[in-house]
Specification:
Largest sheet: 9 strands, mixed
CATH topology of one domain: Rossmann fold
Structural class: alpha+beta
CATH superfamily of one domain: Alpha/Beta hydrolase fold, catalytic domain
Strand order of the largest sheet: 29-30-32-31-33-34-35-36-37
Number of helices: 10
């Protein structure tokens, strides 16, 4: 502890080595891991290159950027994308971000396959027998958006529709002999985690789809990650029992068998394509991960008659993008003390089982002492309705400063997006930016969050803008009452749907003294009528069908009730955002300015729904910090500065 500074610096004003420059220069996002016979591939999104998504190839001897500049592998189907490439050993097919067309990458040469101005593609699947791709196609034509499954001739680029008629499609998967195709579909008003259907079709020797058979799922049962085993048996995950479990389909009996049991979640909300929570080691074993009681576990599932599920001891508590090729597996792993990292491993079943692994890439090195890192502490509390709610608390942590008995830290309550999302305990440099400066964080898994079973998820139906808001307010008050925060310095921040929870909490409750909205929703009726297709009926379940429930939409829209809002807010917004248009932030800013409140807004050119550029990430974090320091007098005004083109009304 630095005795010269400890008693003189207010929490929230501690100097920290975790700077925004360090965060963006030393951090990347890792996703979409794929294993082939002789290499591992993954996507690396780099803020330093304006968010360019690079396909990286890893072999035993080297790691190289496989995708040359200026190409960027990213799909914009559903606006959120995913499933932007597929591989067949050294053949890579990918969706290029700038034009959303499909390209072939072979022997370091890139060639264009499609030239379709109004189409977007995702969830690519390679049919090596018929030399074609099967993919989800999202066609944008005259303000109409239609989705279908298509086949794409890789020689000519011609596109033919295979399956159409539903509002949405996902997960086209071919068996190893390319004689059968499975896929998911669903219709409005469902989101895929509400309910969707799994189909199985047969393909003749001319490549034509000759039949379609419904396998599983319904409007109220959600299917996730259908996948074929090496011996051509179809597996999938379903929440038919109110928990996402693994199933196996027997084609001869036309029945499915549930392979896992208990209060475990093997599935995820399908916000993006190509998520993976399990993979086949061989015909007898699956490597998988599941969540239970806020903990994530890696395991081996024997798919013989025993159906034994054996946990693997690892140093991590968070897993994603699981892939396997024979006994080689790879995944993204993280913990409260470890940034998300790409890990390659093999399984030694003679030792209970255990992993022999190597870390290929960490999402962040953050070359500072681990003494700066705040580790999540799980909290469970009862909300005002007596319902159990979960959160992760991060205490202020800095080796040079301590909180004395008189000072309690300012608390930032974080509202995750979705709202069907989940806060992660994975070490995050942006969270450490705050805790190392003397802020406490409370990351709330409010009612409606994933990871606690279907009933917990369904709590938010008809209650969005109420129960999530109450849970976040109750979480902040719980922290203050238990000595974890200064009740006079409670802050709430969130992005997208989390931004809506922020603005609703500041408008309809009287708990917080400041807030930050990142591309948050303030006006629900326009969101119901003007947003993109994927979420255009999302609110039917969360609030009620529109326009029948227009009055409720208006009542729960913060923009309509700004007379109740009496604390400062800062807004950050991408100008090219198609999910939450920038007009929402502009209207809210104008309303608060008219009231004479301290309000700030920053709009970023070239940014969409979610910030990708290094300079955007830097400026938003630094300006948010300066805003709090201004509001709570944590720092002398003459020493507070704002970066970039920000509109600050300091009335």
């Amino acid at each position: 502890m630095n005795s010269d500074n400890t008693t003189h610096l207010t929490p929230g004003n501690w100097p920290s080595e975790i700077s925004t420059d360090l965060i963006v220069s030393d951090s990347v996002s890792i996703d979409e891991v794929r294993l082939t016979d002789d290499a591992l591939f993954y996507i690396e999104r780099r803020p330093q290159e304006n968010g360019r998504c690079v396909i990286v190839k890893v072999t035993e001897h080297e790691t190289i950027d496989f995708l040359p500049t200026p190409y960027s592998a990213r799909s914009r189907v559903h606006e959120y994308g995913g499933g932007c490439y597929c591989s067949d050993n050294n053949l890579i097919f990918f969706v290029n971000d700038s034009d959303q067309d499909i390209y072939l990458l072979e022997n370091s040469l890139v060639s264009r396959i499609t030239s379709s101005k109004d189409n977007r593609f995702a969830d690519l699947c390679y049919d090596k027998i018929n030399r074609r791709l099967i993919a989800v196609c999202e066609a944008h034509d005259n303000n109409q958006t239609t989705n279908s499954l298509v086949e794409i001739n890789i020689q000519t680029g011609s596109i033919n529709t295979l399956v159409s008629g539903c509002d949405f499609y996902a997960s086209p998967k071919m068996n190893t002999s390319c004689s059968q195709l499975s896929w998911q579909s669903w219709d409005h008003p469902n989101m895929p985690w509400d309910g969707n259907n799994l189909y199985l079709g047969h393909i003749n020797n001319k490549g034509k789809l000759t039949s379609q058979q419904h396998i599983a799922g319904s409007d109220n049962i959600s299917i996730f990650q259908p996948q074929w085993s090496p011996d051509d048996i179809l597996y999938y995950i379903s929440d038919a029992t109110k928990w996402w479990h693994i199933y196996r389909y027997n084609e001869s009996t036309a029945k499915s068998e549930q392979l896992t049991t208990g209060e475990k979640e093997f599935g995820l909300p399908q916000w993006v394509f190509a998520q993976s929570t399990y993979a086949f080691i061989d015909n007898e074993k699956i490597v998988c991960c599941y969540q239970s009681k806020a903990q994530s576990t890696l395991a081996i599932l024997s798919i013989d008659s025993t159906l034994e599920l054996t946990s693997i001891t690892t140093p991590w508590q968070n897993f994603s993008s699981i892939t396997a090729n024979k006994n080689n597996i790879a995944f993204i792993a993280a913990s409260g003390k470890c940034f998300p990292q790409l890990t390659s491993a093999s399984i030694d079943e003679s030792k209970s089982p255990s992993l022999s692994y190597r870390v290929i890439k960490s999402s962040s090195k953050l070359s500072v002492s681990e003494k700066y890192f705040s580790v999540a502490q799980a909290i469970t509390f009862s909300n005002r309705h007596g319902l159990e709610v979960h959160a992760n608390y991060y205490p202020p942590t800095n080796p040079d400063y301590q909180i004395n008995d008189r000072d309690k830290p300012p608390l930032i309550v974080i509202c995750h997006g979705g709202p069907t999302g989940q806060s992660s305990i994975a070490l995050d440099p942006k969270k450490q930016f705050w805790t190392s400066r003397g802020f406490a964080l409370l990351d709330v898994n409010y009612s409606g969050s994933t990871g606690y079973g279907k009933d917990y998820r369904l709590r938010l139906n008809n209650n969005w803008g109420k129960l999530d808001v109450e849970d976040c307010c109750d979480a902040a008050l719980y922290a203050a009452e238990h000595g974890l925060a200064d009740k006079s310095k409670l802050i709430i921040r969130g992005s997208s749907a989390g931004g809506y929870t922020v603005l609703s909490a500041l408008t309809f409750e009287n708990v917080f003294s400041a807030g930050a909205s990142y591309y948050g929703i303030s006006e629900l009726t326009s969101l119901a009528s003007d947003t993109h297709k994927f979420e255009s009926h999302y609110l039917d379940r969360l609030i009620g069908p529109y326009p029948e429930n227009k009055a409720i939409y208006q009542q729960r829209s913060p923009i309509n009730c700004t007379e109740q809002l009496n604390c400062p807010v800062i807004f950050f917004q991408g100008i090219e955002d198609k999910v939450v248009p920038k007009q929402q932030a502009e209207s809210m800013f104008a309303a608060l300015d008219e009231k004479g409140l301290i309000v700030a807004a920053q709009f970023f050119a070239g940014e969409q729904h979610g910030f990708r550029k290094a300079e955007t990430i830097k400026q938003s974090l630094e300006n948010e910090l300066s805003f709090y320091q201004l509001i709570f007098n944590l720092k002398a005004k003459k020493d507070i500065s704002f970066k970039g083109d920000i509109n600050l009304k300091n009335n």
